Recover the amino acids of this structure.
């Protein structure tokens, strides 16, 4: 056993190397094949911060994939990360309203509470208690070299970084390990966080040992790499609630049409799909493709010289048609906050059962059972 954590900087850096990415992609494909044969060996953990309404970038980037994984029979845990709202903010804002709005989004798109456990950070004490022993397994230097922490630190400028933001990667490790998830859907930029989780799990095993000698308490969680196309915002940059360039899942048809009219295109009336040279136009074409299932090159060819106006008209029609049933269901759900709260409380109760059992094992391994 080791008394001091070894530096994980090399491991985190290596997680995004070309060779590591190729291995991760290959392993992710193997996992997909295994899920198709027998999903019972996997437990997925994923989630979102309730900082505002979910948008089309969320839907096509991760939410639709969650529904697919859930419906494939994989045990799925979905975290509403309310504590993570305050990692880089002074307050939570209208947090309960946003949490219930997120619940409405989840259920409207097809997340089934009979198949998936939906729960809130602040409602699972055992999850957050794991943060204490986990923090003893990492160093300050390692946390500061984590790519996400470095990016957030640079973005905050002169503003001091909070302790919660500094320890964000370890909190994410607790999110994954409290329920012993062995599969996490991620993009390539999130692989260092997953590697930090794997480091924490290994170090806990090395330092404190096992309750059952045949297996470590925590699994080595693996990545399920997202194959989804990135949907840019209406201004051609990353879709972000803070930029105001999003189309929300729950927006009505008229608001969608009004916002799409403001989308950035270019002066060339001939519509072509060219992501490198015409990213804004190509992004709108891709949005139509995602909603209709049509090939983006064929969509562009069909538009011909319709110009930006014709493209925006097609985007509006495609988005409104695709999301119409989801939006209708969301209106029904949002009108019944009592039901949404009941679903969340049921998920919280199950998450607590799972987390309490994990914490009991952790205490036994640490010789802290009193």
């Amino acid at each position: 056993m080791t008394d001091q954590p070894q530096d994980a900087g090399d491991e985190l850096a290596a997680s995004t190397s070309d060779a590591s990415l190729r291995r991760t992609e290959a392993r992710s494909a193997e996992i997909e094949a295994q899920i198709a044969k027998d999903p019972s060996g996997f437990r997925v953990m994923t989630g979102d911060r309730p900082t505002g309404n979910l948008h089309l970038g969320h839907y096509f980037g991760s939410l639709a994939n969650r529904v697919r994984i859930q419906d494939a029979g994989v045990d799925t845990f979905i975290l509403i990360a309310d504590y993570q709202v305050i990692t880089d903010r002074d307050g939570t804002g209208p947090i309960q309203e946003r949490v219930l709005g997120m619940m409405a989004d989840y259920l409207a798109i097809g997340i089934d509470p009979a198949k998936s456990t939906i729960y809130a950070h602040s409602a699972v004490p055992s999850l957050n208690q794991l943060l204490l022993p986990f923090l003893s397994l990492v160093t300050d230097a390692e946390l500061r070299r984590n790519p996400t922490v470095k990016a957030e630190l640079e973005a905050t400028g002169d503003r001091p970084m909070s302790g919660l933001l500094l320890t964000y990667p370890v909190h994410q490790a607790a999110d994954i390990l409290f329920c012993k998830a062995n599969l996490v859907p991620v993009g390539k930029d999130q692989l260092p966080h997953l590697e930090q989780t794997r480091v924490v799990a290994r170090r806990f095993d090395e330092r404190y040992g096992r309750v059952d000698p045949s297996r470590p308490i925590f699994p080595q969680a693996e990545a399920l790499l997202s194959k989804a196309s990135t949907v840019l915002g209406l201004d051609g940059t990353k879709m972000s609630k803070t930029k105001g360039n999003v189309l929300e899942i729950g927006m009505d048809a008229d608001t969608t049409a009004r916002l799409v009219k403001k989308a950035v295109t270019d002066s060339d009336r001939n519509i072509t799909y060219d992501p490198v040279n015409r990213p804004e136009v190509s992004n709108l074409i891709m949005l139509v493709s995602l909603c209709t299932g049509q090939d983006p090159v064929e969509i562009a060819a069909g538009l011909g010289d319709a110009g930006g106006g014709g493209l925006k008209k097609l985007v509006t029609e495609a988005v409104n048609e695709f999301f119409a049933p989801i939006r209708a269901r969301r209106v029904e759900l949002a009108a019944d906050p009592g039901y949404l709260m009941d679903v969340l409380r049921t998920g919280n109760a199950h998450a607590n059962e799972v987390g309490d059992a994990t914490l009991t094992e952790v205490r036994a391994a640490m010789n802290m059972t009193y």
